[in-house]
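#struct-pred
JK: can someone run the complex with 4FV? inputs below
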Amino acid sequence: MMKASFDIITIFPEIFKSYLGESILKRAIQKGLLDVKIHNLRDFSQDKHKTVDDYPYGGGPGMVMKIEPIYNAIQFIKSDGIGRFNVLLSPQGRIYNQRVAESFLSKNLRILLICGRYEGIDERVVEHLTDDEISVGDYILTGGELAALVIIDSITRLIPGVLGDDESVKEDSFTCGIFDYPHYTRPPEFKGIKVPDILLSGNHQEIKKWRKKEALKKTFIKRPDLINKEDLSLEDRKLLEEIILDIQR
Ligand code: 4FV
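RT: done, structure tokens with the ligand placed:
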């Protein structure tokens, strides 16, 4: 049985309890498909004030996360003899996407997520205690905890048995390199806006074709950078040419 396992180093363990205590991730934990151990970094500080940050050498604004508590936390976590893949969440990391999520899952790694806070983290953590540095986007958060939840969520949902219907993953946006097809549900008409007739036709072959074309069209319009023509089948390349002609009309 495939399982996602994470250790999290954070100074705000409570942040994780609500998100992991609801819905799909809660059920994944109950089913034994997800395991998350949360470690409060302050428990690994050696001074009586539980200090985890300090002033930056060389001056400058803000505080810097100290290396010793992080080192102590990693040593404690690894003392169970199970190897960890240490991931630092940082805006300077490689950009996280579906491919990275799939790659982490395929390697069946027990991932240790280090959540930064403050102005930054002692560079020696990056250089000597980190196997990978990941950014969830080119913007600055107040802490790495949200980034850690993004990684946990996006990897866990790929595990068979986590989502109600495992077919969903196969049709996800990005899984096939292009966006998912448009979705509709009742009512068939809302304030004069109708659901596309094809979806009410019951003609599953035509519906499949329509969905493929719409997915390709949406991707071409919104994120043409995601389309790599070399990866498209001959049929899809023809479909794309049809779409481009339709748009140009
Ligand atoms: C971030 C990101 C991020 C930087 C200062 C936490 C913050 C604070 N993490 N992807 N973008 N982290 O902005 O992962 O330490």
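RT: quick notes.
The two ends are 51 Å apart (CA to CA).
Residues 171-248 form a domain with the Trp Operon Repressor; Chain A fold (CATH 1.10.1270.20).
JK: thanks, will look after standup
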